[in-house]
């Protein structure tokens, strides 16, 4: 590739990756809006609906390493395209489901696989491999910001669609939107490292090295907390807002506002990940989440406090991703990055399962979300502490050769 074509090619790559991540995240984050209308029309329990979504979050984590392995061997393009097709099928199935069993299959099982393939980890791993180290933090921040832009754009539009077209027609429209990820995945034609580098360490050796390294597990369990927060808020914040006597539009607006402000948070985290110690950045983000949730719970719940909370939480929403990806790459190299980050992401999705399901379960059992907010605050403190001993090596130390 010539020097003249390089900037244009990088620009096209970034734009397509950002838009693909935007659609993938925006579609997934909109599902919480369907809880109230679907449970009302079908007579389902909130915990039943939440369990189906929680299954998708958990399976997303379980399948992420496998999708990452395919992407590491074949490139991200084919994986994202296949995931887009499954995305569309899953959403159509959700729209046509008459019972919770069918809804759990399409919205839980099938959607979990789809999100693993056409999701942020595969897209970000492709970007990280395709770009030099000096641009990776910024690129990951841009990819994460793209995800947030999708949340800001798609979730409010889905809310308007539910109000104007009904929940079933809106789901069918979203299924068609999911197919737009297919052409956007075309530039994600990353390939494995050159043979001289690929022979340094096999996938099995990379996994074994990660599993016996404490830093891997610190990142894993820290990301568990991130997933718990994200799933709880994305699925249950609209319901919590409604339970406080505020209009439904405030809940949908809060989710959209989280996405909008996470654009700035993700971009800022991407820049800081290139200039500051990534470990300290993670500790600060997790601690700030806990403080923010504690203050929010102590304040009266008005439209203003909800929207301010959403904006501030948006800055912290996915800002954990750039420093986490950077730490995985610097500790374990980029050859098997999609696989290894996929495993760390499994921790995120196990936490997501807990956040989505426990939120609904606690609401059904206690009639409020108070206990879940307390769990989220305590989890923030845990994540901040467990990231303190994470190792943050320089790039030159990240790729050991086989002995």
List the keywords.
about 400 residues, mainly alpha, Growth Hormone, Chain: A, about 80% helix, about 0% strand
Number of domains: 1
CATH topology category name: Growth Hormone, Chain: A
Q: Helix tally?
A: 18
Shape: globular
- Helix and strand element order: HHHHHHHHHHHHHHHHHH
List low-pLDDT spans: 1-6, 396-403
CATH architecture: Up-down Bundle
Helix/strand structural class? mainly alpha
Share in helix: over 70%
The CATH superfamily is identified as MFS general substrate transporter like domains
In the CATH scheme, the class would be: Mainly Alpha
β-strand number: 0
Strand content: under 5%
Average pLDDT, rounded to a whole number, is 83
Q: What distance lies between the first and last C-alpha atoms, to the nearest angstrom? A: 34 Å
What can you see in these coordinates?
With 403 residues, the chain is mainly alpha-helical. It has one domain (14-187, 201-397): MFS general substrate transporter like domains (Growth Hormone, Chain: A, Up-down Bundle). Helix content is 81%, strand content 0%. It has 18 helices and no strands. It is globular. The model is unreliable at 1-6 and 396-403 (pLDDT under 50).
List the topology elements.
Layout: H1 5-29, H2 35-42, H3 46-74, H4 76-96, H5 100-117, H6 120-130, H7 133-165, H8 167-178, H9 181-184, H10 195-198, H11 203-211, H12 214-243, H13 248-275, H14 278-298, H15 303-316, H16 321-332, H17 337-366, H18 370-386
């Amino acid at each position: 590739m010539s020097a003249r074509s390089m900037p244009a090619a990088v620009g096209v790559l970034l734009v397509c990756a950002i838009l693909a991540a935007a659609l993938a995240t925006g579609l997934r984050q909109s599902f919480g809006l369907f809880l109230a209308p679907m449970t009302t029309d079908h007579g389902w329990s909130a915990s039943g609906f939440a369990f189906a979504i929680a299954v998708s979050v958990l399976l997303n984590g379980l399948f992420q390493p496998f999708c990452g392995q395919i992407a590491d061997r074949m490139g991200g393009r084919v994986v994202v395209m296949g995931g887009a097709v499954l995305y569309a099928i899953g959403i159509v199935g959700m729209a046509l489901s008459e019972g919770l069993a069918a809804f759990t299959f399409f919205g839980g099982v099938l959607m979990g696989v789809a999100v693993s393939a056409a999701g942020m980890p595969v897209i970000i791993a492709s970007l990280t491999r395709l770009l030099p180290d000096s641009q990776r933090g910024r690129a990951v921040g841009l990819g994460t910001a793209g995800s947030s832009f999708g949340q800001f754009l798609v979730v409010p539009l889905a809310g308007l669609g539910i109000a104007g077209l009904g929940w079933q027609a809106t789901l069918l429209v979203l299924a068609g939107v999911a197919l737009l990820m297919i052409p956007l995945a075309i530039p994600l034609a990353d390939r494995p490292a050159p043979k001289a580098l690929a022979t340094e360490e096999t996938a099995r050796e990379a996994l074994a090295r990660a599993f016996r390294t404490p830093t891997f597990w610190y990142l894993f369990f820290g990301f568990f907390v991130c997933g718990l927060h994200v799933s709880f808020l994305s699925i249950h914040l609209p319901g919590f807002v409604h339970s406080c006597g505020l209009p439904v539009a405030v809940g949908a607006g809060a989710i959209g506002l989280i996405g909008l402000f996470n654009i700035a948070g993700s971009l800022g985290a991407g820049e800081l990940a290139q200039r500051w110690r990534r470990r300290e950045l993670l500790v600060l983000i997790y601690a700030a989440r806990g403080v923010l949730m504690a203050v929010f719970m102590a304040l009266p719940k008005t439209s203003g406090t909800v929207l301010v909370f959403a904006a501030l939480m948006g800055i912290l929403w996915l800002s954990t991703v750039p420093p986490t990806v950077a730490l995985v790459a610097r500790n374990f190299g980029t050859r098997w990055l999609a696989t290894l980050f996929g495993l760390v992401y499994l921790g995120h999705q196990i936490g997501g399962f807990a956040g989505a399901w426990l939120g609904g379960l606690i609401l059904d059992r206690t009639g409020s979300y108070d206990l879940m907010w307390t769990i989220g605050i305590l989890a923030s403190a845990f994540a901040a502490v467990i990231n303190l001993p994470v190792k943050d090596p320089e790039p030159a130390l990240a790729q050991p050769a086989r002995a």
